[in-house]
């Protein structure tokens, strides 16, 4: 599991199944899959803040990803 985000960032339960992506040298890398998150509203305000999100760490599934994609997808632990 990966925990990431901060105020105004992260994910919510409705985002589950989406990608957690990183850009490095103009190339996108998927680091995780959104498992859920927490969202709260400050009393007396209309603003909604995201505290953090939870992500499945896909590096733990590299063997399975390689097998399922027949080596078409690169994966690093």
Automatic annotation (TrEMBL):
UniProt-listed Pfam families: Trypsin
Molecular function, one GO term: serine-type endopeptidase activity
Domain Peptidase S1: 1-65
Single Gene Ontology BP annotation: proteolysis
Superkingdom of origin: Eukaryota
UniProt-recorded name of the protein: Peptidase S1 domain-containing protein
């Amino acid at each position: 599991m990966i925990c990431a985000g901060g105020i105004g960032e992260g994910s919510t339960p409705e985002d589950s199944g989406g990608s957690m992506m990183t850009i490095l040298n103009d190339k996108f890398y998927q680091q995780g899959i959104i498992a859920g998150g927490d969202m709260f509203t400050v009393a007396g305000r209309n603003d909604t803040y995201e505290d953090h999100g939870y992500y499945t760490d896909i590096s733990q599934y590299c063997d399975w990803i390689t097998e399922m994609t027949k080596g078409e997808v690169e994966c690093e632990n």
